[in-house]
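Agenda item 2: 2'-deoxycytidine-5'-monophosphate complex prediction
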Amino acid sequence: MSARRLVIAIDGPAASGKSSTAKWVADRLGIRHVDSGALYRALTAAALRAGPAGGDWSEAEVLRHAGRVGLRPEGRGFAPLVDGAPAAEEIRAVEVTRHVSTVAAMPGVRAWVNAQVRAAADEHDVVVDGRDIGTAVFPDAALKVFLVADPWERARRRLIQRLERTPTEAEVAEETDRLVQRDARDATQTVPARDAVVVDTTYLTQEDQVERIVALARAVTHRPGDTSAG
Ligand code: DC
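Presented output:
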């Protein structure tokens, strides 16, 4: 009998802290983290490597590169691979971010990513972060969390991470505009599941967010008849 795997879905808009929170929650629970956005990014990076016609690809042209992209188990997560080599830095490049929403809007690409994510979760208990994990990829996930935060605060956090200093008001304003535009491009698939727990992180520290989600996860995994303590 194959055991049912535990899936915790963490969705939310850009810069809502999904990936870092998911990674941390996975560490705390001793399970694995899958970043679904990394697959959309890696496929975009593979297509960009093949030619500069970014933004002008058909779905078939993008999917031609799918065989060059994969996930390799690494630590408590998975490293994105392009052409067999780790590409964690390349997939965060500005050029990739510019084109990834177009790639992610292609239904065939979404089906391909979803299959990769489900395969990764087949073997392990996982925390998966993305946009549609609780709605489309794992509608039966044991716990679905949807993270939200004020756009200004998301922009501020992202800039602190990127610049490693306090950003100016003008910098935050500019980044907020960019984020709001990205939110609009990704809006179709970024919708909370009806049974998702919405967590507004605007006034929470990262530790608080993680604690809250770990507590929710423990509540849903502590089934009646479970004799383990805690
Ligand atoms: O979360 P991120 O910035 O790494 O996501 C990259 C892109 O992929 C972004 O355009 C949203 C999209 N995405 C998606 O459509 N569905 C997911 N499950 C994850 C990411």
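Discussion summary: The chain has a mean pLDDT of 92.
Owner for follow-up: CH.
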